[in-house]
Write a structure and sequence with these properties.
This protein has 118 residues and is mostly beta strands. It has a single domain, classed as Sandwich (Jelly Rolls). Helices cover 3% and strands 49% of the residues. The protein has a six-stranded antiparallel sheet. Strands 6-5-8 form a three-stranded antiparallel sheet, with no helix packed on it. A hairpin with a 2-residue loop joins strand 5 and strand 6. The radius of gyration is 15 Å and the shape is globular.
Length: 118
């Protein structure tokens, strides 16, 4: 991503941002630690059908998703939900969680990681 003046705010056009390939997915960083003073990270994430990272736990940050296209099955501790386009998902730090994309089609979502302060 080209350097932006975060003291004055910024706008990224569709498709703009640093692109990162991760486990067969495409993540586009819209705001990262450098732009937010390490307060949060916001990604646009496109995943193929059936994408499922292993269950994991974030110890420092909360994780959230807003589903733009497709869906995902989400687990958080002993809870399980189906999240479709337009759904918001919140996963608190310290709880093992995971998610799986739909088996037939890919998904696209906005993912945020927020580092709590205080």
């Amino acid at each position: 991503m080209s350097e932006v003046n975060t003291d004055a705010g910024y706008v990224l056009a569709p498709g703009d941002g640093e692109s990162i390939r991760f486990l067969g997915t495409l993540m586009t960083v819209k705001a990262g630690a450098r732009q937010t003073g390490n307060a949060f990270t916001l990604l646009e994430w496109t995943a193929p059908a059936g994408f499922a990272p292993p269950p994991h736990t974030h110890h420092v940050e909360d994780e959230a998703f807003f589903i733009l296209e497709g869906s995902m099955t989400v687990t958080c501790g002993d809870k399980r939900w189906e999240a479709t386009a337009g759904s918001f998902v919140f996963l608190p730090r310290g709880i093992t969680h995971g998610f799986t994309g739909p088996p037939a089609d890919g998904s696209r979502w906005v993912r945020g990681l927020h580092r709590r302060s205080g």
